[in-house]
Amino acid sequence: RDKVYKPVVIPHDHMPRLGQEFVLLDDVHEFYNEYAKKVGFSVRINSSRKSHRGEIVRKEYVCSKEGATTKEVVEKKRRCSKVREGCKAKLAVVKSKSGTYVVSVFEEDHNHPLTTPRRVHLLRSHRNVSEVKRSLTHQLAAANIPIHQQISVLELQGGGIQNIGCLGKDLYNDETKSKNKVKGHDADMLLEHFQLEKEKNSAFTFTIESDNENRITHCFWADATSRRGYNSFGDVVVFDTTYNTNKYGMIFAPFIGVNNHGQTTVFACSFLSDETTESFVWLFEQFKKAMPGDLPKMIITDQDPAITKAISETLPNTFHRDDFDRNWLEIIEKGKLRDNAWLKSVFEIRSKWVPAYVNHVFSAGMSSSQRAESYHFFFKRYVSKKNSLLDFMIRFNRALNHQRHEELNANHADINEKPTLKLPLKMEKQMVSLYTREIFYKFQDELWDSLQHKIELVKEDAHHCVYKVVNQNEDDDVHEVLFDKTLDFASCICKKFESKGIPCKHILAYFHRKQFTYLPDQYILKRWTKSARCDKVIGDGGLEIEDCFQNSILMRRTALFQLASNVIDKAVISEEASKILMDDFENSLRKIKSVVSQDPKAMEKNKCTDQHVLNDPLVVRAKGCGKRLKKRKEKARAKDKNRRCHGCGKIGQSHDKRNCPMLKNR
Q: Which of 76, 203, 232, 566 has the fewest CB atoms within 10 Å distance of its CB?
């Protein structure tokens, strides 16, 4: 006779009984599962019966060890164990005439040992990845925290690994399930993400292009903060492409610039399926439509013929900074000077002397696309080539928020920290109140160095004055300052003010000579001041572009968690206070369940969109994707490294069983 295992004695109100009534089937499952957790077994649904109207009129819940394994044992790589032992413990409910569900069958005894309280959290029905936990793990994944480390976070939060409510493999399975759930819907979810952003703030703009199969080929977007930033700092734009940011191999192409703190700021972003002139023309046209204010004075790119041609078509009046490299190569080719050692050495140090030919155009101190390359390096810490388009957006927004927080931190420092003044000059006091800290320090260095220069008039006519400015410590450091009497404007041959927007030490030396107390307004660029972002920005249709922030599930979770933590910290020191809090939590939980069950937004949260608009993009191979195409022989050699000979059993051999030396010698 089989041994019978009696459950432990538990309070009567937690014990199922015949005739017990429930309003919903979910209440039945929750009650029986809680009972199972206290007793020490796992629950699963065994069967259900429906009426002719499709209503469930009977449902049976059993111990997970009910029944027996009937499938034949098949040899598999993954070993599976038998868990069913023919246990008869169960609970069944039937629907009454009043519409409630009544317990009609309850079998209490088990034919197997029950699990101890220390191990009950390992049973399947007592493990669950809740919606809040899922939201948190998704956010941790967006921070590039792997699942095995996420478990540590949940363990600390729950006060022990047994209190997490799930295991690591449950998180892995949930991740796989989430990916399978959205498979084939990535493009639609990206579109939905953009539409939601547009609902939050009408100043968010995006454009998606697709081919004749409705597959995404081009995508452009810019939020309100980026568009406002362009209005203040869009005089110089850096454009560059990068790769390996998503699983489709689409090229990521951001437009970036520099803000009033000298930090990188993003104006707009895009995905492209190719790098043709047509694609770049489309992209630059979208950029022009989306950005408020004037077109950029300068655009800096790498040397790409397709980009160069597209810029000449769409931004003909914008100075393009890669012109020098292209023209240099043309001259070298025409003159057949490719092997000239001196020209090669001069070209290597071109960054030191080329600016002399382009410094008449404002570049905000940027001389190449190196800022874009450093931004890509920063940005790729957040994304990977395994990301879906939606995953990319989540990680991209996180990187963007970190970048914008650096600007917020710099603004905070400008308000609360005053730089130390070096000189008893009113001009220095004037500019410390106007410039941001980063720019003021650059101006202060120029002002300090200007005192080491002497200036003398060398030429004057009805319209101009020419001054020679000499460094008193270095006689060969000589510059010329030209003063235009008509324009009432002084300029230096170093062109620092024209290219960087900060008066050079030579012009400041001229101001000392003329006994200027304050820096004239025409030498103060607003883009470098603390008030650079203060202007109202008007977009298409005359509407103001404003920043707007919306709450998310994680923000609500953070606020609730902080409040709950504060309450718990105060209640835990008193047994009476802890009991009061437990009672309040249980009452709140019942009310919340009722509210959530009737909330259409909560019910729709996990549903995938039914409307299929776009297809996922094809995987593209960009010229900078980093993977080299292998020849046939190279592939064969790589295959040989993993080949196993079924004669000798060795791996990585060039022979097989037919010509195995070991078999031949037998």
A: 76
Res 530: pLDDT: 95
User: Side by side, which strands form the sheet with 464-471?
Assistant: 453-460, 464-471, 474-484, 489-492
CA dist., res. 261 & res. 173, Å (int): 45
Greatest alpha-carbon span in the chain: 122
Q: Are residues 165 and 204 in the same domain?
A: no
458 and 369 within one domain: no
Instruction: Using DSSP, state whether 360 is helix, strand or coil.
Output: coil
- The answer to whether the beta carbons of residues 239 and 213 sit under 8 Å apart is no
Are 311 and 401 found together in one domain?
A: yes
> How many H helices and E strands in the chain?
23, 17
Residue span of the structural domain in which 387 resides: 185-328+356-409
Nearest CA among 473, 498, 328 for reference residue 481 = 498
- As a whole number of angstroms, the distance between CA 444 and CA 527 comes to 18
Residues 297, 387 share a domain: yes
One-letter identity of residue 508: L
Q: What residues does 453 pair with on adjacent strands?
A: 471
The size of the chain, in residues, is 666
Helix residue spans in 70-146 (DSSP H): 131-142
Which of 2-11, 220-229, 337-346, 514-523 shows the lowest mean pLDDT across its residues?
Answer: 2-11
Single-letter amino acid, residue 160: G
Determine how β-strand 453-460 pairs with β-strand 319-320: unpaired
Closest CA to 146 of 177, 175, 180: 175
Rounded Cα–Cα distance for residues 634 and 602 (Å): 54
pLDDT at 606: 47
Q: How far apart are CA 41 and CA 112, in angstroms?
A: 10
DSSP SS3 for 270: strand
What is the pTM (predicted TM-score) of this model? 0.70
As a whole number of angstroms, the distance between CA 601 and CA 590 comes to: 19
Residue 147 lies in a domain: yes
- C-alpha span between 599 and 131 (Å, rounded): 15
Other CB atoms within a 10 A radius of the CB of residue 206 amount to: 21
**Whole-number pLDDT of residue 79:** 67
Task: Name which residue leads in pLDDT, 343 or 281.
Answer: 281
Residue 383 near residue 245, CB atoms below 8 Å: yes
